Amino acid sequence: MSASELLPYLLKVNGALVLFCAVYYLGLRRLTFFGLNRAFLLFALLFAPTYPLLDFSGWLARTAPRPAELLRLPAEWSGLALPATTAAPAATDWLLVAYWTGVVVFGLRLLIQLLAVRRLHGQSRPQELHGWSFRRLSGSVMPFAFWQTVYLNPNRHPAAEMPAILAHEHEHVRQWHTIDILLAQLSLVFYWFNPGGWLLRRALHENLEFQADYRVLQARPHDAKAYQYSLLHQSIERGPTNEIVCHFNFHLLKTRIAMMNTKPSARRQLLRYIAVLPLAAGLLFATAATNAAPTVAPVAGLSASIIDVEKEVPISALPPAALAYIVQQYPGYRLIGLTEVRANDGRNLRYKVQIAVGRRPTDVLFDEKGQPIQTGDPLTFLDGKRISKTALDKLDPKQIESMSVLKRDVALKAFGQEAANGTILIITKQNKDSPEVRDFMRKYGIVNTPASPAVEQLTQLVVSGQGLSTNDLQGRLLLVNGQEASVEKSKVATGQLQSVFVMDAEQATKKYGAKGAKGAVIIQTK
Predict the structure, then answer these.
(1) How far apart are CA 448 and CA 441, in angstroms?
(2) pLDDT at 74 over 70
(3) Strand 520-525 to strand 477-480: parallel, antiparallel, or no bridges (unpaired)?
């Protein structure tokens, strides 16, 4: 997870912890459904760090209609060769340093606590009393349970209190309460700065004591007062404690005794637990709503392609530099023909020369100035990772969110000489917002310029088959298959449309002169 994603993730997790903490303390803490309270607190500790990672945006995504068989290229990407800069650390960087420092400190704290229990285990010896097994300790140590073992020093307790103490600690063992405590402590390692995390840990410890007290008194109802007196005695003779174990008198004596004397909660109070359902659902869909975005329905069996428009021209149109190159590199050549190649938006002029050396025909490609262009595969990136042409051919078009091309000059600035044949940038739907894609765009200075609403409207009118009106064009030049056309020609039958491109006024003026002063709409049919 990148730094840019970590802070939003932490905000979501800690916001959820605070909400669950509020629900527990305001509505559930005083209920005697200790098993359900335990389940609620465990659910809160597990759900909070998990739900931001779940993607339910597909449930909310809006699908735009796609009546025509057309895979439109997105708004063109601009590659910028940005100089390397050394920026001063941002405030978020210092926050991350502080966060990870806290994680390390509290992680070491947890490790020390675990080692302390291990040390006590090594110093203890197994023993049995009144049918209860435990490990005997020496010194001033409070009775406690950890994992499946009870630890205590029987010399510190009256013989009459030992059965109650052992029954209580073995109840912790029987119900595996150590798992709950370790989970709460691990949560504090990563969310040490959140009061909700500390309060939830306290609530969990407290509820486990309530649950153990309840089970002991159920089994020994006539010893209730003696049991409470033993608690009082233990609260007076305190000793060293450890937060990762279940102590016999871990929480305030008054709270535990009050809960023992509380009447069982009425069954109608179970309705309070239903609050967890809308709370969890609300958090899930709040996260999904931020990730959902309108998507374009894919067209089955349609392959992604970058369209070039070719037109035969007289051989006299060949730039002199290109002719000089052919004379030098292909002695004994014969010129067969010349084709002008342009992108469907009218830019990226190239010349494809058909020559024959002996009996073998050859195509040579030149740029607008007559410089030779290597006729190899373009440099291709998929979700920020370079891929081969073979991998590109195997890519399922339904997975593509966007595909764009960087022309030769721009590609060279961004990617160097390897991009002499241009660069194709493909982003899949699954990884469109991934940190790898964002890091790739940042590294190479790639900026996506979205199309304006007016351009989107014109494009959609052509795609839908409705065609354009004079009012829609607003003075723009209309070209269909390279020829100036009337608005009636903009209505293209379903399945016959290959591409549609809206050129801005500046580009259209450079290309078409005064006719393109207000822009141009270029339509290419199959």
Answers:
(1) 9
(2) no
(3) parallel
